[in-house]
Amino acid sequence: MRTNGLVELQKKIDASVASLSVGEEKLLVFEVCSGHWAIDFPSISAISTCGQIAPLWVREGVPPAIIGMSASDGEILTVIDGGLVFGMKPVTIDLKSRLITFEEGPLRGIALLVERILDPILKSDLENSPMVTVVGLEDIASKLKLSN
Fold this sequence. Notes:
Elements: H1 2-19, E1 26-32, E2 35-40, E3 44-49, E4 54-55, E5 66-72, E6 75-81, H2 82-85, E7 98-102, E8 110-114, E9 116-117, E10 121-122, E11 132-134, H3 137-142
Parallel strand pairs: 2-11, 6-8
Antiparallel strand pairs: 1-2, 1-9, 1-10, 3-7, 4-5, 5-6, 7-8
């Protein structure tokens, strides 16, 4: 029963993403600690359910937001906690939690753990969504810099 609900939730996410036309500039909206955040679609390679996350055994010199490693489609990904990245409490992992994997740029090979995915929006609709904070890959990457 739980698996069917999870499959239906993923189908809803996929349908929402597919409903936006190709030429429009899209933002993926996600929730972390009751806050709504958005990131450009072109930088995203996948949205997946949150499977097993192997914790890091060595923490020295590792930013607190890096919480472990996970495998997805044969690729090993570094998992970062969206709550810790944005200066809040850690994400609570449940059936709605998702990993957002990035295609290229400074976050290639990194999966952002979020509490849930919301309906995508167009950039042109941002003014009608004042509670959404847009973040870029560089914004997230800058919070992960290792200290010397």
